Amino acid sequence: MLQIATDIDALARFGRALADPIRCRVLLVLREGPAHPADLAEALGITRTRLSNHLACLRDCGLVVAVPVGRRVRYELADPRLGHALDDLRSAVLAVAADTTCPDAGTEGCC
Question: Entry's PROSITE patterns (predicted)?
Fold first, then answer.
């Protein structure tokens, strides 16, 4: 039973991270390779402060790690298999009609 709880926690963390479009974009950029925050912020067109909040969430979810490089910090996916998981999710066919939207995350029964 403990393994199921651990699996559920891991999936919930992944889902929480993917629930925000900016965090999805960060993960997709990091899927291509490690990056410094300044480069990520520029690539995503957001402020470093806003990026910092999203990187903190992704770190807390266990999806990215901060690697010290001299006086700078570089971010990368915590596990290379996450890149494969993102590829699989991107290529999966969703059983959703094109003209429908996902309900708000706060709504019970949300996708």
Answer: HTH_ARSR_2
| Enclosing H/E stretch for 97 | none
Q: Is 107 a member of any domain?
A: no
**Residue 96: what pLDDT?**
56
Q: How far apart are CA 21 and CA 93, in angstroms?
A: 19
In a domain, 101, yes or no: no
This prediction has a pTM of: 0.79
Cα 21 to Cα 105: distance, rounded to the nearest angstrom: 13
Q: Which residues contact 18 (CB under 8 A, 6 or more apart)?
A: 24, 27, 89
* Termini Cα distance of the chain: 25
